[in-house]
Structure formats: structure tokens, C-alpha cells
Amino acid sequence: MDTVYALATAQGKAGVAVVRVSGPRAFDACLHICGDVPEPRNSVVRVLRDAQGAQLDQALVLTFAEKQSFTGEETVEFHLHGSVAVVAAVLDVLGGIDGLRLAEPGEFTRRALENGRLDLARVEGLADLIDAETEAQRKQALRVFSGALGGKCEAWRGLLLRAVALLEATIDFADEEVPVDVSFEVTALVSEVAEALEREIAGSWVGERIRSGFEVAIIGAPNVGKSTLLNSMAGREAAITSEYAGTTRDVIEVRMDLAGLPVTLLDTAGLRETVDAVESIGIARARARADAADLRVFLVEAGEKPEMDPREDDIILWAKADLLGRVENAISGKTGAGVTELVARIGQVLSKRVAGAGIATRARHRQAMERGLGALQAALELLPYGEASAEVAAEELRVAIRALDSLVGRIDVEMVLDEIFASFCLGK
Q1: pLDDT for 356-407, tens place per residue?
Q2: DSSP secondary structure string, 54-118?
Q3: Architecture of the domain spanning 126-209+360-422
Q4: What CATH number is given for 3-118 in this structure?
């Protein structure tokens, strides 16, 4: 492979900036720029110089031997003073060394995958960890990056390989008397993996929501106080408010951290009958987003009913508590009455759902597991027929194994690699 280099920390002025070099000529680059190559894993302070001997910076230099670095290749890290000028000068010198080139986005991590340092699920976990904005996202991404999903796949794969081996023994000795009936053990093994996949698939929907964010829609009639409530919860004027009905025409979105979970609050157009063409579009969008939302908060005026049928866990509150006096389940974005309680209630509902989250966090994970589960269910239908269907059942089990292999990147992943690594920054 080429030897690549890049700034591994964020762009701009900082206390420290890290430039990473990885590949077969990484130690040559270190020798070129600081005069020697420190022992691997020993950090030393060196003066970095350009080809003419002029000083670039005084930096901490850290080297990693092959198979001991993040990428699995010889790697050098220069921990520089975080000046934009210093970083630019060091990168310019590295670019002038034969055999070195600037890394592409995600190339360090891609090399870690290709060199067996990470599986594909861990790569995705790393991307999610870098993008994590809330505590729930951090914890979930760290579980995936630590190899929890890959570990489960490996365990499932081992059980299925055992089942395939038993079936193939039946096929190989079809003309002889096999001393033990393997059908019960095979059925037990396949059923165990199928049940585990069903649980993981069910939890993957919540896992995806933790990663991408939950949506909570505020719904009600015009002028019921939806926008005022949104502004109160957001702590800023995110939506325009006025005394005129129909002010909100489109869906207003505010992203926030709520009880450690990523939540997008949706302020929707007031639901009512109207002949205004533009308002009608807004109402249609409001209903569509409300239908798709994970949770809905209904604001209802005294004596009225919700404009849509509430679902389980939906929250129904009396609007304009400032005009109602002391009423249970009432709220006012204007005075703040009941807002703290609403935030806590939303957090409780969503936290309860998060408790059932699986390790799988992406649609790709779920689709791979669904393919595997479909093959296992087909195999279970064939197993009762004994030797007559053993060969076909074994092939279904191999299909399931290939589906799990694609989940962690053993096979059939070239089509998704470019998309995954394009989301990484240059220094990863």
C-alpha cells in the first residue's frame, strides 16, 4: 500500500494537533523529518525539520510497529503545537517525501478493516462514536465499536457451523447406519440462533432511533400554544408566534438532548378545516409527520378533543394553563407551567423504549439479520423431513451464515464500503 498522511485532529487552531503517517514508508518519513526513529510505543520530544534543515516545530513523536497500530501498519504520530501555520508546514514537508500522499477520507480506518484490526460493524461503531452528541448515543456507539455486535455474530456463526457439520455428516453417511439421530440437536441449534436474531431485529428499531434521534411532535388546533411551547422547551425563539391562527405553515424542527437521548421536537401546523391552499399543505405535512413521529404531545383546549386518535404513550395536556388556573395535566409555554414535568415525562417514555434496544444500529444490520432469519426459518421447515431434505436445509444454513458474515464485513460488502468511509473525516 501507499504510505498516507493526514491531520488526525480537527482543523483550526488548538492546543495540540496530531498528524498521522501510516504505511510501509512511515518510519522513513519519521527519519526524514526528525532525524531518527524512536522505539515503538515510546513517546519522545524531537525537533522537526524540513529538507533544508530549518526548524518546523518541537513535537512529541510516537511510533507504532506493524500489527501494533490502529491501522495494522507502521505508523508515526507527530503531536504538534496546534498552530494552523505549523500544521500546514509539516504537511507540506510530508507531501514532498517520495512515496507519501495525503490520505483520503476514512482511509486510516479502511486500512484497519483491510488489515483485520476492525470488523465492519466496529468501523460503523467508530463512525457513530465520533458523531455522538448525547450520552445514549455515546454508550451505544461504544458498545458496537468495542465489538459487541461482532461477538454475537461470531457466536451465532459457531452454532450454525456446528449444525451444518451435523447435517453434512448425515448426507455423507446416507448409505450407512448413522449411530445417532442429529435432527434434535440441529433443530435446537438453529432455533437458538433464530430466536436470538428475532430479539435483535426487534431491538434494532430502537437502536436506529438512538443513533438518528427520536421525533416528538407537538399537535393541536391553531393558536393552542404549540409554537410557544416549542420555544419554551428549546430555550429560544425557534418558531414564530402570533395571535393569528395559521401562523405555522411548515414543520419547525428543534434538535435537543433530552434525558441523554437525541430528540427532535416538531412544531406542526394547527389542525383544522381550511380553504387556504398553502395552509392545507402545511396541515397535510403536519399529519404526515405526526403519524411518523415516535411520540406525540397533544395540546387540547378545555372542552375539546384531540384532533387525531392518540396512540399508546402519547401525552395529552390541557393548553394555556395560565388561563385555566390550577388544573392537572395542564401546560403553558408562556409561563412555563408544566414544561419541566412534560420534559421529564417525555424522557421517561423514551427511556423505557431504549431499555429494549439491541446492539444493531443501522438498517444494513437489520436487513442482514432478516436475511439470515429467513434462511433459518426455511431450514427449520425442512428439518422434519429428515435425510430427504438435509442437503437443502444445509444450504439454507450456509445462506444464513453468509448473511451474518456480510454483517461484520467478511463478504459482500464492497458496495457499502465507499458510502461508509465517505462519512469519515480526513484524519480517520
Answers
A1: 788 888 888 999 999 999 999 999 999 888 777 888 999 999 999 999 998 8
A2: -EEEEEEEEEE-TTSSSSSS-EEEEEEE--HHHHHHHHHHHHTSTTEEEPPTTHHHHHHHHTTSS
A3: Up-down Bundle (1.20)
A4: 3.30.1360.120
